[in-house]
Amino acid sequence: MAEREPNAHQFTLDDALGVDTTEFMDLEDPNYAYMFGFLQADGHLKRGPGRKGSLSVEINARDIEILHRFQELTPYNSSIRERTRSTNFSESHHSATWTMCSLEARTKLNELGLPYGRKSKKITPPRVPFSRRDYLRGVIDADGSVGYTSKGLPFISLTTASTAIGAYLCFYSKKITGVERQIKRNARDGIYNILYWTEAAQALGEHLYYPGCLSLERKQSAANSLTAWVRPDDMRVAPDRRRWQESEDRVLLRLNNDSAAARELGRTEKSCYIRLWRLRSGRVPMPADNQ
Questions:
Q1: How many degrees, rounded to 5, is the angle at CA 191 between CA 187 and CA 197?
Q2: Of 99, 213, 63, 222, which is closest to residue 157 (Cα–Cα)?
Q3: What is the chain's pLDDT, residue by residue, as a tens digit (291 residues)?
């Protein structure tokens, strides 16, 4: 299908002349922290010849309002264009793209941790002070999902190729929800799929999507709806799995006795028996100083 003529909405500011840009991308500002997280996940920074280049974000046109908010937050010339085209998933995909070319702005974003070119595995949380929950909300709005499973259970998830981003979400969310997650790449495509559900999703959603925050309207509405869920009386609460630490493995190997290890470690004899068997049989790696 032939591409239709783009519909442009131009935002003009005299190329930042006379505009105070000192606060642009101050990541302690919740709006900029959110925006930076979104750009890291869904933006594309491209170099051109000489001083040329651009930052662009293309999203479904239904979410165009967030691009207008980015435009308002950016004291540099930028534009928003809409187009309809054929894709593998739709005969008439309607998208919106925000584009900004300022070298000064691109340099600032790059220094903060938005790489040029392919970036999915390279992005990391900022190394300067930043508003953490707003940053993570931006990442989830761009690359995550919020809502209910097919069985009616509330969930929040993130799909990312970045080990640093996945690990940081797990670290931060444990402090909010008390639930521990260990990241592991999907064997099929090497992507991390991190999921929080039931009460953990409710707690995380309430924390990240607070009233008045900058966010995608549909995900804000979905996060708000999570609070309505109530655990059915016949749905048991599964205890959070306690993972084995190297220090515990050392105790288990030293004692070499299920009952004694269970008493010292505060675990069941069955779990100590299975863990010791897995260590001895090579099913799990030995602790560093026992290899």
A1: 100
A2: 222
A3: 444 444 444 443 434 344 467 799 999 999 999 999 999 999 999 999 989 999 999 999 999 999 999 999 999 999 999 999 877 767 788 999 999 999 999 999 999 999 999 888 899 999 999 999 999 999 999 999 999 999 999 999 999 999 999 999 999 999 999 998 888 888 788 899 999 999 999 999 999 999 999 999 999 999 999 999 999 888 877 665 678 888 989 999 999 998 899 888 888 888 899 999 989 888 889 988 765
- The DSSP annotation for 77-134 comes to -EEEEEEEE--SS-SSEEEEEEEE--HHHHHHHHHHT--BS--TTT----SS---HHH
Q: How many Cα neighbours within 13 Å face the side chain of 53? A: 18
Say how far apart CA 198 and CA 156 lie, in whole Å.
9
Q: Is the entire prediction scored with pTM above 0.85?
A: no
Looking at the chain, list the stretches that DSSP marks H as alpha helix, in order from N- to C-terminal side. 30-42, 64-73, 103-112, 132-143, 163-177, 198-208, 217-225, 246-255, 258-265, 269-281
Residue 286 token pair: 């030995």
CB 70 within 8 Å of CB 86: no
Torsion of CA 58, 61, 67, 72, to 10 degrees: 140
Per the CB < 8 A criterion, the answer to whether 80 and 68 are in contact is: yes
